[in-house]
Amino acid sequence: MHDAKMNAATLRDSLKDWALNSAFPLWWDRGYDHEQGGFHEKLALDGNPVSAPRRARVQPRQIYCYTVAASMGWDGPAEKIIRLGLDLYQTRYRRPDGLFRALVSAGGEVLDNNVTLYDQAFALLALATAGEALGVVEQHEQQALALLAALHTELRHPVAGFLEPGGDHRQQSNPHMHLFEAAQAWEQVGTAPAWAALVDEIADMALTRFIDPVSGGLREFFDAQWQPAAGTDGRIVEPGHQFEWAWLLMRWGQRRNHSGAIKAALRLVEIGERHGVDPARNVACNSLLDDFSIHDNSARLWPQTERIKAGALAAEITGEADYWRIAADGAAGLLRYLDTTVPGLWFDRMQADGALVEEPSPASSFYHIVCAIAELDRALGQ
User: Are 290 and 211 in contact, with CB atoms under 8 Å apart?
Assistant: First the structure.
């Protein structure tokens, strides 16, 4: 094993130790509301829960985390947590039309009955991963197909893909990315042909609409014809999403034997690494513009996790040591965010000067961390 891969393996061991011995226990003990049910939105840096309304996206993301905990060998009650989380999520968030509402109170009162495409993608991901973990894939697939049918009825875009009814832009690449991830999860465990069709449609959108044909960079916001949105928003290119889309497109490219997708994905990795990573801090920044100049040089936690995933899979596919270096650098960068007084928490934001912002740890970031550890572990092997 060469040095870069050995370094990645050492860092993987540190990350797994953090997850198994600190994070999974803490986010069950403190991060789950044992009185009213459901997962808390945030934990303060002293480990105590922060009272806040609960977004739909947090619940399925936490369910996903504990499906990974089970497969990673955590000795806690993962199956119980998955069941509790899923039952509450279905009860409090599912609307009569099968879609999932955006926000409820800690006690389950509906605070925002609207839906976002982003939230539905995570509902599909949780149904797939929990179905596999609990041995009820067939039952969950029927629910997932009903949800997909509701998406086609309510949110279908007349040109391609789906609309994002929440936020300032109705045409976005990001929720399609998470739908791509969820559909890939279903293609692996389910039997319905609808999943492969959805996966292929979104891959085609990425390759023909989201990725700029000249620069190879992937944009965030679009107009009604899926052309770049007007103004600065249409120019935004996020390093974290270059890495995250790269990982997903490489997975698809492997499955479909599509060399063009893998080539496009490796270009995304190159853009993210060359233009989006600050070598002084060893972190991926928040956003660039389409000329790859820095737009926001502060750095959230989650782009670091996507750098790990993209580097690890690119190394596995190409055999090139430099991609292991990217994965290892991403892991080293991520570990800085995990260096908290209470083990198992994280800092979510780094300022441009390298200072980490002291504020509660958002539960929503756990999904990114856990997925990165699992992917690095898978790519390295045991």
Answer: no
Residue 158 belongs to what domain range? 3-380
Q: How many CB atoms lie within 10 A of CB 111?
A: 13
In DSSP terms, 277 is beta-bridged to 284
- In this predicted structure, the answer to whether residue 340 has a pLDDT above a threshold of 70 is yes
pTM, two decimals, is 0.98
Q: What is the dihedral angle through the alpha carbons of 45, 48, 53, 56, rounded to the nearest 10 degrees?
A: 80
Task: Give which of 326, 379, 374 is closest to 70, Cα–Cα.
Answer: 374
8 A C-beta contact, residue 171 and residue 224: yes
Q: How many domains does the chain have?
A: 1
Distance CA 317, CA 4 (A): 16
Q: Is 51 exposed, middle or buried (0-12, 13-18, 19+ CB in 10 A)?
A: exposed
How far apart, in whole angstroms, are the C-alpha atoms of residue 290 and residue 269? 15
Beta carbons of 106 and 38 less than 8 angstroms apart: yes
Q: What is the pLDDT of residues 43-75, one digit of tens each?
A: 999 999 999 999 999 999 999 999 999 999 999
Quick check: 226 and 171 in contact, CB under 8 A? Answer: yes
CATH number of the domain to which 168 belongs:
1.50.10.10
d(CA 131, CA 278): 40
Q: Are 194 and 223 spatial neighbours (Cβ–Cβ below 8 Å)?
A: no
Q: What are the tens digits of pLDDT across the range 350-359? A: 999 999 999 9
Pairing of strands 49-50, 42-43: antiparallel
**pLDDT tens-digit profile of 280-302?**
999 999 999 999 999 999 999 99
Residue 382's pLDDT band, with cuts at 50, 70 and 90, is low
Helical axes 137-154 vs 174-189, angle rounded to 10°: 150
Contact predicate 195/186, CB 8 Å: yes
CA-to-CA distance for 269 and 287, rounded, in angstroms? 14
Instruction: List residues bridging with 287 in a β-sheet.
Output: 296
